């Protein structure tokens, strides 16, 4: 479920209907960024006594969530109510090391950005030079590489603008 849709009316009911199965897996990415009310709503979903007859207030439909497997990702559990944490199986995964970030940036992100763009070949070298400083700056900000990718996308857009401006000055 996309970050922007956590609190969309009827979201869970629609997800359950769309799966067309009685035992779906629903994945919520970065749930820690959701409104606190969403986390409280998960309490009843994870309660085996209540989750057989949850009523979606928007659609006014009762649904059985007892066979649903929920996977939630979060960067922090600090906003999670203690009762919710007790109803979850928490699996902690380590953050990428600096070396892993560099490898991902150089071998995956930069080639992906340059292969999908019409930037000149020297753009790849320009972006590769940015991988290490960006990785070092962002290592404390997140466990993954989303911000690294976002930083490289912004850099490639800036590089493209510079090329366009230089071309306009020549013409």
Mean pLDDT figure: 84
Give the overall silhouette.
elongated
Number of strands: 4
Q: Please indicate the percent range of residues in DSSP E strands (runs of 2 or more).
A: 5-15%
Helix and strand composition category: mainly alpha
| Helix coverage percent | 40-55%
Strand order of the largest sheet: 1-4
* End-to-end Cα distance: 48 Å
Radius of gyration: 22 Å
Biggest sheet record: 2 strands, parallel
What count of helical segments does DSSP give? 6
Order of helices and strands: HEHEEEHHHH
| Uncertain residue segments | none
Give a quick summary of the entry:
By secondary structure, the chain is mainly alpha-helical. The chain has helices spanning 11-19, 36-45, 82-86, 98-115, 122-138, 146-170, and strands at residues 25-28, 54-56, 61-63, 69-72.
Explained architecture:
Helix 4 packs antiparallel against helix 5, helix 4 crosses helix 6 and helix 5 runs antiparallel to helix 6. It is built from six helices and four strands. The chain has 171 residues and is mainly alpha-helical. Strands 1-4 form a two-stranded parallel ribbon.
List keywords for this structure.
elongated; mainly alpha; 171 residues; 8% strand
Topology of helices and strands:
Blueprint: H1 11-19, E1 25-28, H2 36-45, E2 54-56, E3 61-63, E4 69-72, H3 82-86, H4 98-115, H5 122-138, H6 146-170
Helix pairs in contact: 4-5, 4-6, 5-6
